[in-house]
């Protein structure tokens, strides 16, 4: 069972990031800053952890920090169509990157094959291809 309140170091650990990353998210306006308690320490609660996990998941999906900030500021009920449009745009971008990576992998596969079947002592086709780029 997780405690209700976290110090910044425990909060960062629970979120799978460093303390510096938490501070960076604060500076960028992505993560709200908790109010100090009676002892003047800032304690993070479950809502902060939810925000942090949202940020991390959105990053894994390829969203930029500016796009994530936009998503965090939208209302999930009233702005659903806009959120959907942003997600579709991101999906299209990821699909384009996948196509590009598949083409790169195919080209590299051919180069490796050419290298494996080239004459001993011949100039390496991989180095030659990269030198001509």
Description of the molecule:
- The chain has 133 residues and is mainly α.
- The chain has a domain at 1-73: Multidrug-efflux Transporter Regulator, Chain: A, Domain 2.
- The chain contains six helices and no strands.
- The longest helix is centred in the C-terminal third of the chain and has 37 residues, at 80-116.
- 11% of the residues are buried.
In short:
With 133 residues, this protein is mainly α. It has a domain at 1-73: Multidrug-efflux Transporter Regulator, Chain: A, Domain 2, CATH 1.10.1660. Helices cover 65% and strands 0% of the residues.
The average pLDDT score comes to 91
> What is the count of DSSP helices, taking H or I runs of 4+ residues?
6
- In the CATH hierarchy, the third-tier topology of the domain at 1-73 is known as Multidrug-efflux Transporter Regulator, Chain: A, Domain 2
Architecture per CATH nomenclature, i.e. the level-2 architecture of the domain at 1-73: Orthogonal Bundle
Elements, N to C (H/E)? HHHHHH
Percent in helix: 55-70%
Give the overall shape: elongated
Radius of gyration: 23 Å
How are the SSEs placed, and which strands pair?
Layout lengths: L7 H8 L3 H10 L17 H15 L4 H9 L6 H37 L8 H7 L2
